[in-house]
Specification:
Helices cover 29% and strands 16% of the residues. The chain is built from 4 helices and 5 strands, in the order E-H-E-H-E-H-E-H-E. Strand 2, helix 2 and strand 3 form a beta-alpha-beta unit. By secondary structure, it is of the alpha/beta class. It has one domain: Oxidized Rhodanese, domain 1, CATH 3.40.250. It comes from Paenibacillus gansuensis. InterPro entries: GlpE_sulfurtransferase, Rhodanese-like_dom, Rhodanese-like_dom_sf.
């Protein structure tokens, strides 16, 4: 059973465009992030998550982004196992994000 929710990039962008302050973590690698990020997102590569999860602000919702949705899914499972609540995978990742 999944321990996290999902949201489409379109749904997330709508909420950002409405001015909602959202807690977004980008788990892609440095070279991927260099090509662009969602404004306001925090970058923590997936491989660094076990050492850096304490940098993540505990908010009612936590949105996780990667390139296509696979790594963010693993990050969601991991963060949920640590007790983070409201963890949400951004389906399709940056490949589906329209800036």
């Amino acid at each position: 059973m999944s321990t996290y929710s999902t949201i489409s990039p379109e749904q997330l962008k709508l909420r950002l465009d409405q001015g909602e302050p959202l807690n977004i973590i980008d788990v892609r690698e440095d070279e991927e992030v260099a090509a662009g990020m969602i404004p306001g997102a925090k970058h923590i590569p997936l491989g660094q998550l076990p050492e850096r999860y304490d940098e993540i602000e505990k908010t009612p919702e936590l949105f996780i982004m990667c390139r296509s949705g696979g790594r963010s899914s693993r990050a969601c499972e991991y963060l949920s196992s640590l007790g983070f609540e409201g963890v949400t995978n951004i389906t399709g990742g940056m490949l589906s994000w329209e800036m």
